[in-house]
Design brief:
single chain, TIM Barrel, nine-stranded mixed β-sheet, two-stranded antiparallel ribbon, 12 helices, 38% helix, 16% strand, globular, binds flavin mononucleotide
């Protein structure tokens, strides 16, 4: 046995694992990956359903549906902002459950003013859309009001309730995008209670987790902990602060952490670098105190609980 084989067998990758009191049949995960296969209104299309069902059929234990928006937005991602959409999500959940996989939805809020951009789109003002988007990607995090932030939490909670009604097992909080921008020392220059210290920058994230725990107390909460390293990324907590933030998330009763390189936010051209450029994305389940298990670097050999790939997985399954 070489080193890699030893490590993988030590992880018991094909054995069940209990997370938040729920048995996951194995420790393989298909992490969030926006496919663009959904309908324009965000409903789960037959193409999207077929994609995820094929992953479940192939044996994946846990599938996360990436970038699920709690609002109507122009972006080609799944959306769950209205009760009428629950049925299409339920069909997906039923399909992956039929093969024993668990389904998560990754709830996110974009780092731009959705209402302003929707109005510009509706008016066909494409140049203004571009200008506004470029502006917002840098500045919305600092311009969004406290009232608007509270409204965003309400919308994300309503989305989680709909996901629960659809039979979804897990809510994953997207710790990049607006949440990550607020956590970021590079992007957040606010001077109110959401800016400045680590405590202030992570306040929104923790308020969101607390609100989710209230509205869907029986669902598993997974937090995508996007980490900004000296090498890459903008929207997330700095690597040096990540262990402390992880402990706050644990104290807020988050059930698992999906630890990854921050790679989405702050510069549209910087989103999702080519394979091999960024550090490993990995998943750590919080089942023992995080202070003892949190990786000092994003290559936490020996502390992983679930194995996750994105592009490698797609290639193996011939999905891309
Ligand atoms: C096409 C594509 C879409 C992605 N969409 C999302 C997403 O919706 N949410 C998210 O958190 N990460 C998303 N990611 C990032 C992946 O989850 C992962 O962190 C990244 O691809 C690095 O892992 P890899 O090198 O194994 O592909 C996406 C990646 C790719 C390639």
């Amino acid at each position: 046995m070489n080193n890699t084989t030893t490590k993988i067998s030590a992880m018991k990758i094909l054995q069940p694992i209990i997370i938040g009191g729920v048995i996951f049949k194995n420790r393989t995960m298909f992490p969030p990956l926006t496919t663009g296969y959904e309908d324009k209104d965000g409903n789960i299309s037959s193409q999207s359903r077929a994609f995820y069902t094929r992953l479940a059929k192939g044996g994946t234990g846990y599938i996360v549906l990436g970038d699920v928006a709690p609002v109507r937005s122009f972006a080609p991602t799944p959306k769950l902002f209205d009760d009428s959409q629950i049925d299409s999500f339920r069909l997906l959940a039923d399909n992956v459950h039929a093969y024993g996989a668990k389904l998560g939805v990754q709830i996110f809020y974009p780092e731009y003013d959705v209402n302003v951009l929707n109005a510009l789109f509706a008016a066909g003002e494409m140049n203004k859309v571009r200008t506004q988007l470029n502006h917002d990607m840098q500045h919305f995090v600092n311009e969004v009001s406290e009232d608007a932030l509270m409204d965003i939490i309400d919308k994300m909670c309503a989305c989680a309730v709909r996901a629960q009604k659809a039979g979804v097992d897990v809510i994953q909080v997207h710790g990049d995008r607006l949440v990550g921008a607020l956590c970021s020392t590079q992007m957040n220059t606010r001077t109110d209670k959401f800016g400045g210290s680590l405590e202030n920058r992570t306040r929104f994230a923790l308020m969101l987790v607390e609100a989710l725990k209230k509205v869907v107390p029986d669902m598993i909460i997974d937090y995508k902990l996007s980490v900004v390293t000296p090498e890459r990324g903008k929207g997330g907590v700095d690597e040096i602060d990540a262990p402390e933030f992880a402990q706050w998330l644990e104290a807020a009763n988050v059930d698992m952490l999906h630890v990854g390189q921050a790679n989405h936010t702050g510069n549209m051209a910087d989103t999702i670098p080519p394979m091999g450029v960024q550090l490993t994305a990995s998943l750590l389940i919080s089942q023992v105190p995080l202070s003892k298990r949190f990786p000092s670097r994003l290559a936490p050999q020996g502390v992983l609980s679930i194995l996750t790939w994105v592009r490698v997985y797609c290639k193996m399954a011939r999905l891309i």
